[in-house]
Specification:
- It comes from Pseudidiomarina sediminum.
- Keywords: Membrane, Transmembrane, Transmembrane helix.
- InterPro entries: DUF599.
- With 246 residues, the chain is an all-alpha fold.
- It has nine helices and no strands.
- Helix 1 runs parallel beside helix 7 and helix 6 runs antiparallel to helix 7.
- It is elongated, with a radius of gyration of 22 Å.
C-alpha cells in the first residue's frame, strides 16, 4: 500500500481538526454560552429539584429514556463496525464500485483496506464513548437511589446542594461522553468522502465542523434553552463563570 502525499496530508488534517475542535469546544464552553453550558445548568437544577421531591419515579423514567438512547447508538455502532470489517474482505468489489462513480480518484484494494481499517477505529472509539456514557448514567441511577429523602432531617440545605451539584457533574460527564460518541458519527460521515477524493474529504471535514459549531453556539434550540434562564447567546459574565467553577 502506498498513500500519496495528498492522502497523508488530508488524513492528518482530519485528525487535527477533530482533536482541535474537541479541545476548542471544551475551553470555549467556559467563557461562552453553549449547549454544553446551559445543559450543565439544567442538570444542576434537575438534581436540586430531585433532592426536594417526595417521589422520584418520573426522574427515574427520564434517566431510563436517556440511557436507552445511548444504548441504541452503542448497539448500532457494533452493527456498523461489523459491516465495515466485512467490507475489508471485499476490498476488490469496493474498488470496482468506486471506479464506477464519477470524480473518484484512482485507488487500489490495499488503499481501500487501509481506509476501512481507520474507519473501523473511528467506530471503535465511538463504541467506547457510548458504553462509558451508559455506565455513567448507571452511576446516576445509584445516586438517585441514595438521594436525600424529601422528609429527612439528617441533611442540611447545604448538604443537599452539594449532593445535587456532584450528582449533576456525573450526569454532565455522561452527557459529554454521549456527545463525543455522536461527534464521532459526524466525523465518520466526513471521512467517507475520502473514498472518493482527498479534496472532497477536506471540504466535508470543514462542513462538519461548521455544522457542529453552529448547533453548539448559534442554534435556535440554544436560544430557547438560554431563554428558560433569562439569558441570551454570548459571553458568560464573570460572576456566573466563577460560580460554575465551584
Amino acid at each position: 500500500m502506498s498513500l500519496t502525499t495528498l492522502d497523508i496530508v488530508t488524513l492528518a488534517f482530519f485528525v487535527t481538526v477533530w482533536v482541535s475542535y474537541t479541545q476548542f469546544a471544551r475551553i470555549r464552553a467556559r467563557t461562552t454560552y453553549s449547549l454544553s453550558h446551559v445543559l450543565r445548568q439544567l442538570r444542576i437544577d434537575w438534581m436540586t429539584t430531585l433532592t426536594r421531591k417526595e417521589h422520584q419515579i418520573a426522574d427515574a423514567s427520564l434517566l431510563g429514556n436517556l440511557e436507552r438512547t445511548v444504548t441504541f447508538f452503542a448497539s448500532s455502532t457494533v452493527l456498523v463496525l461489523a459491516g465495515v470489517l466485512t467490507l475489508l474482505a471485499s476490498a476488490d468489489k469496493v474498488v470496482d464500485v468506486l471506479h464506477s462513480l464519477p470524480f473518484t480518484a484512482d485507488t487500489a484494494p490495499e488503499k481501500v483496506q487501509f481506509k476501512l481499517a481507520v474507519l473501523s477505529l473511528i467506530f471503535v472509539f465511538a463504541f467506547f464513548k457510548f458504553t462509558w456514557a451508559i455506565r455513567q448514567f448507571g452511576f446516576v441511577s445509584v445516586l438517585m437511589g441514595a438521594a436525600p429523602q424529601y422528609r429527612s432531617t439528617e441533611f442540611t440545605d447545604e448538604q443537599r446542594e452539594i449532593f445535587a451539584r456532584q450528582s449533576a457533574k456525573v450526569l454532565d460527564q455522561a452527557g459529554h461522553e454521549y456527545n463525543n460518541g455522536l461527534r464521532s458519527y459526524y466525523f465518520a460521515l466526513a471521512y467517507l468522502s475520502w473514498f472518493l477524493h482527498p479534496a472532497l474529504f477536506v471540504i466535508a471535514t470543514i462542513l462538519v465542523v461548521s455544522v457542529l459549531y453552529r448547533r453548539e453556539y448559534r442554534s435556535r434550540v440554544l436560544r430557547a434553552l438560554l431563554a428558560t434562564k433569562g439569558l441570551e447567546p454570548g459571553r458568560i459574565n464573570q460572576q456566573e463563570s466563577e460560580r460554575d467553577a465551584q
